Amino acid sequence: QVQLQESGPGLVKPSETLSLTCAVSGYSISSGHYWGWIRQPPGKGLEWIGSIYHSGSTYYNPSLKSRVTISVDTSKNQFSLKLSSVTAADTAVYYCAREVSYDSGSLWGQGTMVTVSS
Amino acid sequence: DIQMTQSPSSLSASVGDRVTITCRASQGIRNYLAWFQQKPGKAPKSLIYAASSLQSGVPSKFSGSGSGTDFTLTISSLQPEDFATYYCQQYNSYPWTFGQGTKVEIK
């Protein structure tokens, strides 16, 4: 059974860098699929942040591209998100996901709440 | 970016009702459309991908249709566990984008 689990600080100060990791179990990242990050501000809708392939190929949302870095560590079967220069507008639940493919829908982690505040 | 517009934004329905939610893309996305269900405090759950393919483990009361710019999600007989917010997502062109959500409430 494939499972994804986000981890990282729940509180980040303004102007600092938000760092989250998604640990994948039950499936090898190297086997395929794109792996992505999505966020949801409190009471609002979903925003796709970006995704990565096991080879390291990445796609980012242009609205966040200047501040986002997604990386993968196949040896640990995990991938990570870094979002720099955060403000209160980056306060959200952050989800990691195995993205949709030709033969299956996406699979999401439970999400982790990150608050940007001093 | 491709804009995804869902309608209605919310609806009230009774147990046993047939419910249809519409999602319209601002440009053609072939059949690269997914539907999700989200309950309060929970992660979105995949229901449908490729516009009409049912995710493994999802009951057959959920169905999807459409291609190009217009898509629908249908729940054939609404049950108490189906009251939630539903989102569509296009994955034809980066950046992937979501609809604003449709909240299905109890009448």
| Radius of gyration of chain A, taken over Cα atoms and rounded to an integer in Å | 14 Å
Q: What structural category arises from helix and sheet content of chain B?
A: mainly beta
Distance between the termini of chain B: 36 Å
Total helical elements of chain A: 0
In which range does the helix fraction of chain A lie?
under 10%
H/I helix tally of chain B:
0
Summed over residues and divided by their number, the pLDDT of chain B gives a mean of: 97
Give the CA-based shape of chain A: globular
Shape of chain B: globular
What are the secondary-structure elements of chain A, in order, as H or E? EEEEEEEEEEE
The oligomerization state is heterodimer
**Straight-line distance between termini of chain A:** 39 Å
Biggest pleated sheet of chain A: 7 strands, mixed
Task: Explain how this protein is built.
- The complex is a heterodimer of chains A (118) and B (107).
- Chain A is mainly β.
- The mean pLDDT of chain A is 96.
- In chain A, strands 2, 4, 5, 6, 9, 10 and 11 form a 7-stranded mixed beta sheet that branches. Chain A has a 4-stranded antiparallel beta sheet with strand order 1-3-8-7, with no helix packed on it.
- In chain B, a hairpin with a 3-residue loop joins strand 5 and strand 6.
- The termini of chain B are far apart.
- The model of chain B has no long low-confidence stretch (mean pLDDT 97).
- Chains A and B meet through strand 10 of A and strand 5 and strand 10 of B.
Give keywords.
heterodimer, A: 118 residues, mainly beta, seven-stranded mixed sheet, four-stranded antiparallel sheet, 11 strands, 0% helix, globular, B: 107 residues
Topology, please?
The complex is a heterodimer of chains A (118) and B (107).
Chain A: E1 3-7, E2 11-12, E3 18-25, E4 35-40, E5 47-52, E6 58-60, E7 68-73, E8 78-83, E9 92-98, E10 107-108, E11 112-116
Chain B: E1 4-7, E2 10-13, E3 19-25, E4 33-38, E5 45-49, E6 53-54, E7 62-67, E8 70-75, E9 85-90, E10 97-98, E11 102-106
Parallel strand pairs in B: 2-11
Antiparallel strand pairs in B: 1-3, 3-8, 4-5, 4-9, 5-6, 7-8, 9-10, 9-11
